[in-house]
Amino acid sequence: MTADDDQTRRSVDAVWRLEFPRLVAGLTRIVRDIDTAEELAQDALVAALEQWPQSGVPRNPGAWLMTTAKHRAIDLLRRKERFARKLELLGREAETDAAADPVDQDEDIQDDLLRMVFTACHPVLSREARVALTLRLLGGLTTEEIARAFLVPESTVAQRIVRAKRTLAREGIPFEVPYGPGLAERLASVLEVVYLVFNEGYSATAGDDWMRPALCEDALRLGRVLAQLMPDEPEVHGLVALLEIQSSRAGARTGPTGAPVLLLDQDRSRWDQLLIRRGFAALARAEALGAAPGPYALQAAIAACHARALTADETDWHRIAELYGALAVRAPSPVVELNRAVAVAKAHGPLAGLLLVDALAATDALKGYHLLPSVRGDLLDQLGRSAEARQEFEQAAALTRNQAERALLLERAAACGGDEASENR
Predict the structure, then answer these.
(1) pLDDT digits (tens, 9 = 90+) for 334-343
(2) Which residue ranges make up each domain of the chain?
């Protein structure tokens, strides 16, 4: 393989990672079957691997992949007489793709992604299956990445996805956004999926990159669409507020070499003030609706505390600790408790935080979760217990699958100083 061929293959891989959710969503609208849509998308990928090394990567690779996949869909439908009417419509669509307005195409893709989320979050599926399937189809995540996010075996995730697809096909679930009671019924699951997709983009569980910005962008766009679709739902606005404010830090989260830069070390002049203002506005809308704040609105309020602080030293850690306390009541989880421990340590000293972390460690609730020893190492380091801190950082480095994060943790192990925390990401 030549250097040019290798570069082309890397380009194909990058495009595929970005375009997979859009391809599957758009093709599912056409063929009304997720498995068939995935097969057609894979066929388009094979064609790209065969043709792009000779012809070069096209100017609009996503459109090339979609057009190629649609042509294969036409071939498939030709073999099925009962789709004759759809064939005629699809043929006209394919002929006009090249001349279509890119803005219109983006809007169609956005609608298709939203339909995909609500389809994958149908109540006929279990909660775990809804999340796993949507992360696979919307985020383009591998089963390994999904398993890592949920701290479960990869085989479990693979089984959930296969069974979910079979259930949707067997039950004949329509590829559409529901209305009325059905919309509210699926909202909590949809919000959770969008939240998890964003988190995977914000702090990638595996690979060489600290972030996967395309996933953050997809999640934020879907959140904004949901806010337009359901303007009277405070948690929709709470989630959007959280994603807007978190996204504002993206440009400051890595250094010149791509190495991670933790929250309290970031150059806050690089935070995107437009996104912060949008986040504040969304949070205000959530609060104006009058309901008690839900988990996403509470997390958005925590993010807003960081955004309001002009410097790290001005952070209102007492308020953040209070908000985490409310979040622990509203949506209790070991990860929330770990984040609360970080805030308590900042507000009341590292020993207070370490007591909470040690209580968590004693339960095994976060066994295998690399941020538990990472946080413990930081608190031990602050208390001057350097040897113990080094061991914790080394354990955290061994547990993480993200190369950039592993390098950061090994640096912390070597230095046993600085500031590291789960919430401080």
Answers:
(1) 999 999 999 9
(2) 1-100, 343-425
